[in-house]
């Protein structure tokens, strides 16, 4: 991973609407992220940002938010301990609590996967995605990031079929993740799946898609977006 | 930004007041996060941020005996997010009487199909009047929102935002200012709002 301050400054200047900082190895290792960098990020960023990875308790969440993050995103720990969602939401308000869901199609149904940061530990959580989407909302999630695993890293487009199904059940903001490879993919996911946000990493990191160009394109295609 | 600015940020509790301090630091202004009456009275500018529920925020102000001090402020005074909602007569959130510096009752967004509550994300301003807070603003300026409650549009409304309905985005009466958005997280538009506020004398 490169210098995150440099990268965060670049995306801020290019017009990203929100940044998510993932430490995807945090949960499987049983360790947490080094949090000292969050304050440095908070000082330079003038857009909202979310920290994901290894937040397993209200105390850890409080630390992350206290350092200046707007939101915390919880994935595997919420599957191990769903009650954590309630406690986070009651303590900090639903608007702070993002639930990340890694999902893929298995035998025609969508299933939730856990510990996806470590291929040797990744496992089917024994939950159906639609059930988990309903449950996390009832427990107080303020936003859902749905990462469609089969599309992730493939750059052949977001999983529109799955996102459309989840959109129907999701009354809180829904962020699509996994599969962005071309500007058309962003247009399709906003227009067809009616998501509130689209998350992408590799196409931006590599410079394949520049955010200002993408925003101009989306506006010209009729997607309402901050210029 | 002028070095003569002495900014007091009222410590109303809540986890992320630091981001507001960082935002004014980026404008070259050092602020004091405080509940000290004298510091607040002596400041050239005062900001009331607000995180959490209106009733909790009011309770904290009352507990710190700050209500009277706030009501007597003559200098430019800006309420942000729940801090702006507290400027009004009352709020539906916890059914609480607020500061009463501005007329009206803050209400929850009704549930509307396709419009999740909280209203969370970027939205633009529709400018209604020419408040000094909105100097150099255009309708192309987007700001960042996170809120479930909103103030009605009235004669104090300087700009509105539309989310299923028009609500008060920027309000002002005399030295009392309010912004429903989070300027500290609203990129250049947010910095402009804060800069405009700190330039008011």
List the helices and strands and how they pair.
The complex is a heterodimer of chains A (227) and B (201).
Chain A: H1 4-14, E1 19-22, H2 36-44, E2 49-52, H3 58-66, E3 71-74, H4 76-80, H5 83-92, E4 97-106, E5 109-114, E6 123-128, H6 129-138, E7 143-148, H7 160-169, E8 174-177, H8 183-191, E9 197-199, H9 202-205, H10 211-220
Parallel strand pairs in A: 1-2, 2-3, 3-4, 4-7, 7-8, 8-9
Antiparallel strand pairs in A: 4-5, 5-6
Chain B: E1 7-10, H1 18-25, E2 31-34, H2 37-42, E3 45-48, H3 54-63, H4 67-71, E4 77-80, H5 82-85, E5 88-91, E6 96-97, E7 102-108, E8 119-124, E9 126-127, E10 142-147, E11 149-150, E12 157-162, E13 166-173, E14 176-179, H6 187-199
Parallel strand pairs in B: 1-2, 1-3, 3-4, 4-14, 5-7
Antiparallel strand pairs in B: 5-6, 7-11, 8-10, 9-12, 12-13, 13-14
Terminal-residue CA separation of chain A: 29 Å
Give the CATH superfamily of chain A: Aldolase class I
C-alpha termini separation of chain B? 12 Å
**How many beta strands in the DSSP annotation of chain A?**
9
In N-to-C order, the SSE pattern of chain A is HEHEHEHHEEEHEHEHEHH
What integer is the average pLDDT of chain A? 91
Principal-axis shape of chain B equals globular
CATH architecture of chain B: 3-Layer(aba) Sandwich
Q: Low-confidence parts of chain A lasting 5 or more residues at pLDDT below 50?
A: none
Say which CATH homologous superfamily of chain B is assigned.
Class I glutamine amidotransferase (GATase) domain
Describe this structure in words.
- The complex is a heterodimer of chains A (227) and B (201).
- Chain A is built from ten helices and nine strands.
- With 227 residues, chain A is an alpha/beta fold.
- Chain A has one domain: TIM Barrel (Alpha-Beta Barrel), CATH 3.20.20.70.
- In chain A, strands 1, 2, 3, 4, 5, 6, 7, 8 and 9 form a nine-stranded mixed beta sheet that branches.
- Chain A is globular and about 45 Å long.
- Chain B has a single domain (7-199), classed as Rossmann fold (3-Layer(aba) Sandwich), CATH 3.40.50.880.
- Chain B has six helices and 14 strands.
- Chain B has an eight-stranded mixed beta sheet with strand order 2-1-3-4-14-13-12-9. A four-stranded mixed beta sheet of chain B has the order 6-5-7-11. A two-stranded antiparallel sheet of chain B has the order 8-10.
- Chain B is globular.
- Classes of the chains: A alpha/beta (227), B alpha/beta (201).
- Chains A and B meet through helix 2 and helix 3 of A and helix 1, strand 8, strand 10 and helix 6 of B.
